């Protein structure tokens, strides 16, 4: 059991769907686990949950629930040399129906997992307990429910204005929908100047503005009426791109929209405008995956560094934000070398997209994606690779290349040897 649990331990790049608005109480036996539980309470995926941490294990839980109703989820840490099965039997006498129980155990526990399940335990995690163990365990209790949001939220933002972040976002979303077959939606959050409608050759009369200004909380049926169809699996929630209104929003203005879209879409790509407000910061911090688009110059390097540092600090249990370089190799423009850019950022870009004014200009003017202009272009392949990386889906083409590489190398080496002999 311990070895299996180690193999299943979550990593920072694992996708974990956020938990709904629930109450969670953790009863810990050790200071270390209590610290992990408190850190889990600060994780963005438990932002809607109310997680309180107590000491005393199952004994303290039983005593507490003799006097108070039980929460949605109880997390219990086992104590050494204690009879956890007897404790769970007594806990069941004071638990309200529907309460879910997570047991945090250790490798020395002797209680069979089957007996824990028979007593209604919903999850069992073998220690030492890490922050992500607690986050994943709580979130997984609800991620299979149809009433809980499970779609993946991907935010794409530019390190500087005019770097082509929207173009990258739209092409990557196209690849996610077409090449990966995921039901996807692009949400253009630049309400005044958004270009998603132009890029997809759409002119919908409704879009994101209708949802964000709606006095009622948007439900799935309402949101589906606002979507414009861009392909078999791709939808668009377009920006009005008009100046009739001043688009000032509170930090939580888009939360309900994102939660609703998560229920019906596998992937939501957010085209985030280059501005720094309470709501744009919240969008980036709350996304499951982040892609920063930058050009290879000094201002972009500084801004990318600042954004990466802030987002890493705000999301300690997530994988770091990703970044790509765009418009690389523009004629007559002095540029920072990719290796120097990466050294400053302390990570490599996931892609370097070359400057090609003709290709991108033709696509923009025609309202087409790069793949529609040139399906075999290397930039099309780059967008496919970014799509795989952001969604966590394996890139079969890369796998085939890696599998064939040793054979090709041996074959080429063999041919070279025969030529030498001849």
Could you give a quick summary of the protein structure above?
The chain has 422 residues and is an alpha/beta fold. It folds into two domains: 129 residues, Response regulator (Rossmann fold); 244 residues, P-loop containing nucleotide triphosphate hydrolases (Rossmann fold, 3-Layer(aba) Sandwich), CATH 3.40.50.
The outline comes out as elongated
Percentage of residues in strands: 15-25%
Share of helical residues: 40-55%
Number of helical segments with 4 or more residues: 18
Low-confidence parts, pLDDT < 50 over ≥5 residues? 1-10, 415-422
Q: Overview of this structure, please?
A:
- By secondary structure, the protein is an alpha/beta fold.
- It folds into 2 domains: 15-143, 3-Layer(aba) Sandwich (Rossmann fold), CATH 3.40.50; 152-395, Rossmann fold.
- The chain is 43% helix and 16% strand.
- The strands form 2 sheets. An 8-stranded mixed beta sheet has the order 8-9-7-10-6-11-12-13, sandwiched between helices.
- The protein is elongated.
- The model is unreliable at 1-10 and 415-422 (pLDDT under 50).
């Amino acid at each position: 059991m311990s070895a299996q649990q180690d193999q299943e331990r979550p990593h920072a790049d694992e996708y974990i769907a956020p938990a709904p608005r629930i109450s969670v109480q953790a009863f810990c036996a050790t200071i270390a686990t209590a610290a992990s539980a408190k850190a889990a309470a600060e994780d963005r995926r438990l932002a809607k949950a109310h997680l309180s941490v107590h000491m005393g294990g199952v004994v303290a839980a039983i005593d507490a629930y003799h006097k108070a109703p039980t929460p949605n989820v109880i997390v219990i840490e086992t104590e050494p040399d204690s009879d956890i099965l007897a404790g769970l039997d007594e806990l069941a006498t004071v638990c309200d129906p529907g309460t879910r129980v997570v047991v945090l155990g250790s490798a020395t526990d002797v209680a069979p997992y089957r007996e824990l399940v028979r007593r209604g335990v919903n999850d069992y995690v073998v220690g030492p307990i890490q922050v992500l163990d607690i986050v994943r365990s709580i979130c997984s209790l609800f991620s299979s429910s149809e009433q809980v949001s499970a779609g993946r939220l991907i935010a794409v933002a530019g390190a500087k204005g005019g770097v082509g972040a929207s173009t990258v976002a739209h092409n990557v979303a196209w690849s996610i929908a077409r090449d990966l077959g995921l039901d996807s939606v692009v949400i253009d959050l630049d309400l005044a100047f958004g270009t998603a409608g132009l890029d997809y050759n759409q002119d919908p009369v409704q879009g994101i503005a209708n949802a964000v200004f709606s006095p009622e909380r948007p439900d799935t049926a309402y949101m589906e009426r606002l979507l414009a169809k861009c392909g078999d699996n791709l939808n668009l929630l377009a920006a009005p791109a008009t100046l009739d209104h001043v688009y000032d929003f509170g930090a939580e203005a888009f939360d309900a929209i994102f939660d609703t879209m998560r229920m019906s879409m596998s992937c939501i790509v957010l085209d985030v405008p280059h501005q720094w407000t309470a709501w744009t910061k919240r969008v980036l911090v709350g996304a499951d995956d982040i892609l920063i688009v930058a050009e290879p110059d000094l201002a972009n390097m500084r801004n990318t560094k600042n954004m990466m540092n802030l987002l890493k600090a705000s999301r300690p249990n997530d994988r770091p934000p990703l970044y790509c370089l765009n418009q690389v190799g523009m004629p007559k423009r002095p540029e920072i070398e990719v290796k120097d850019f990466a050294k400053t950022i302390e990570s490599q870009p996931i892609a370097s997209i070359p400057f090609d004014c003709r290709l991108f200009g033709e696509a923009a003017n025609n309202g087409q994606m790069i793949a529609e202009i040139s399906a075999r272009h290397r930039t099309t392949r780059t967008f496919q690779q970014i799509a795989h990386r952001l969604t966590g889906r394996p890139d079969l083409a890369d796998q085939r290349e890696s599998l064939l590489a040793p054979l090709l190398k041996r074959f080429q080496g063999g041919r070279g040897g025969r030529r030498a002999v001849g």
